[in-house]
Specification:
The chain contains ten helices and ten strands. By secondary structure, it is of the alpha+beta class. A hairpin with a 2-residue loop joins β7 and β8. The mean pLDDT is 93.
Length: 268
């Protein structure tokens, strides 16, 4: 089923566990065994789901996918029971507070006040599911870009603590966004037969003043990300061939050197 699909639900997409995703590669990068351990949803991830839904999908989808938590005193037994019932009865919804909703609305306003960001999210298709086989290993892969505005471009919406170029450069390295960009661009190129070569990040801070910036990556950054995802796919391919996902990255001892920022000079 390689190609592009517009109407696959989040649940169906995530159920395709035989296909390699960028988030799978992130876990694999820790150690192969970590890739097989599903990550529980954190409050930050829940907020991110609601944030994406509000900005990209519109109010109808947001009302369907997100639940605004009513005022509940969870310090009382009755409040705890009420909260548990809400969570139990809405397993697929992102549950957020009124204060979180206010932040999301402010972030949405900021993104739409930025002329380029507004244009990027205002055109094209949301969350297309992309399926392809890695050309080197043959392993099945998948991706789900936030926005495909056309013009051989993919767009990803990121909430961040700091939207400055310096801060986001650090986030790119820490969270593997360069690998994500290369993986998605190559996947779209393979799935469509058209060259996709521009990946834009719309970054918006999650606290006042909710600064918004748009960033693209240099070709060197994309090429580095490509080497990273290919290295990880090679590891996954070896694991699948052996039927083993070890809980270590090296079978040998690894020497850790003194950090360069420590001025020791060899003196005792």
């Amino acid at each position: 089923m390689n190609g592009l699909y517009e109407n696959i639900t989040h649940a169906d997409y995530h159920a395709m566990t035989d296909r390699i995703s960028n988030s799978y590669l992130s876990r694999l990068d820790k150690c192969p065994a970590a890739a097989k351990v599903p990550l529980p949803e954190t409050p930050a991830m829940t907020f991110g789901r609601a944030f994406h839904s509000f900005i990209l999908d519109g109010m109808v989808a947001f009302s369907r996918d997100v639940l605004i938590l009513p005022e509940i005193n969870r310090r009382t037994n009755a409040g705890k029971e009420e909260y548990l019932a809400l969570v139990t009865n809405n397993p697929d919804k992102a549950i957020i507070t009124h204060d979180e909703l206010k932040s999301i609305m402010a972030m949405d306003k900021s993104v739409k006040a930025h002329p380029l960001a507004r244009n990027l999210i205002g055109t094209g298709t949301n969350e297309v599911s992309v399926f392809w086989d890695d050309p080197f290993s043959g392993l099945p892969c998948k991706a789900r870009p936030d926005k495909v505005p056309g013009q051989n471009t993919l767009v990803d919406l990121k909430k961040t603590r700091g939207a400055s170029a310096h801060s986001f450069q650090r986030s790119i390295i820490d969270f593997g966004y360069h690998r994500q960009a290369a993986f998605y661009l190559d996947g779209m190129t393979k799935a469509t037969g058209e060259k996709y070569d521009l990946f834009a990040f719309i970054t918006v801070e999650d606290s006042e003043p909710y600064r918004t910036e748009v960033y693209t990556l240099s070709q060197d950054f994309i090429d580095y990300g490509r080497l990273e995802y290919q290295r990880l796919i090679n590891i996954e391919n070896q694991c699948r061939q052996k039927g083993e996902w070890p809980n270590y990255t090296s079978a040998e001892a690894t020497e850790i050197e003194l950090p360069k920022y420590i001025n020791f000079g060899g003196r005792l």
